[in-house]
Design a protein that fits this description.
Layout lengths: L1 H16 L9 E3 L2 E5 L18 E5 L21 E3 L21 E3 L32 E3 L10 H14 L7 E3 L29 E3 L20 E3 L10 H8 L6 E3 L6 E2 L4 H9 L1 H6 L10 E2 L25 H29 L1 H31 L1 H8 L1
Parallel strand pairs: 2-3, 3-4, 4-5, 5-6, 6-7, 7-8, 8-9, 9-10, 11-12
Antiparallel strand pairs: 1-2
Helix pairs in contact: 7-8
Amino acid sequence: MALYVFLVVAAQVALSAACPAEFHTCQCSDHVVSCTDTAFRSTKMLQYLPPDTTKAVLTGNNWTELPWPLFGESSVEALTWLDLSNNKIRHLHGHTLNRMPNLEVLYLGNNDIFIGSRSETHNISSLHTRIFSNLPKLKHLNLANAFTEDLESSRYVSHIHEIFQESSFRSLEFIDLTGNELSVLNPHRHQGEDHDIFCEMPNIAVAYLMHNDLTYLNVKPQCLQKLSQLRLDDNKFPYLRNEDIDALTSLPLLDVLNISNNPFACDCHARNFIDWIHNNSRAARIIPQRELLTCDTAQPDIFAGRRLVDVETRLLRCPEQLTTRPRHRVSYAVLGVMLSAIFVLFGVVLYYSRKQVAARLLLLVRRSRYHSLNMDAAKLRMHENPSESTEFDV
């Protein structure tokens, strides 16, 4: 055991010795520099990256703002893999990723990148729209949970769209946008613009969009002809619209479509979607665990919680068809509450006024009895002296 520990320590020392002095807590071997959980605060050491480095793993540091260019004025032409994830990155300059002409893999996930205008960032430089424009060979881009949550998602979605428009993604094959609160993919399409972010990625094969707020796709299928895997799980899709189904079924290479863990609303609007899940052979082949997809809500509600493959679409109703009855129920309930409150209030008033009420009732009873006795006496006199009655009548 002691020998094993000695060998491990000796190997780590040897790897550290192979690094430049500025990377003393890192490990270097075979053109790979690995600085994992090193908690660097300064980025000055990056300019001393060995020029023959092909892979740099620089994670677990406190780099809120990166220099530009990242590795100084010298070009790191050998670098093909760069991992900058989990570094608390807040700001990127437009030239930060310059001088990396052969970079193929870039990880920027699990950071706090603030993108927006200068006024939105309180005069602190933010992500420029051309941040990826000098990476012509980039094939793999990981932006999972990369952007800040301090800015409302609807505002930075437009900026992400602009970044993709200005970027050089002609070689990109994989993109991961997991966990960025994206509510739409093409925010300007509804304003008449015909641009699609995926049209900037003609070779995209894998797109991870899970754990966002998407409710529909709105993509151009002609821009996704090489797409083989699309992950849409853990979003907010109530169903897939007809145009989204048509777009997906027209993709010739699509092999995997993950739509699990979405709040599917099984009503009349979802009939075509559920029928597609039921009966389409392509859907059966590309959707993993299709039989486990369930209705989160349903109309009628007897289908809530059921598997989509068990839903009879002919029985589904539209939500608006069921609005009348609940309104009547609510009205009756409100009326009942109001009547109950009135009875309670009446009872309270009656209780606290019971003495006055009793006295008034007693007075009324006495007056009634007195009037009754007078009437009886008058009738008796008339009976005993009919002449008085006749004179009176005349």
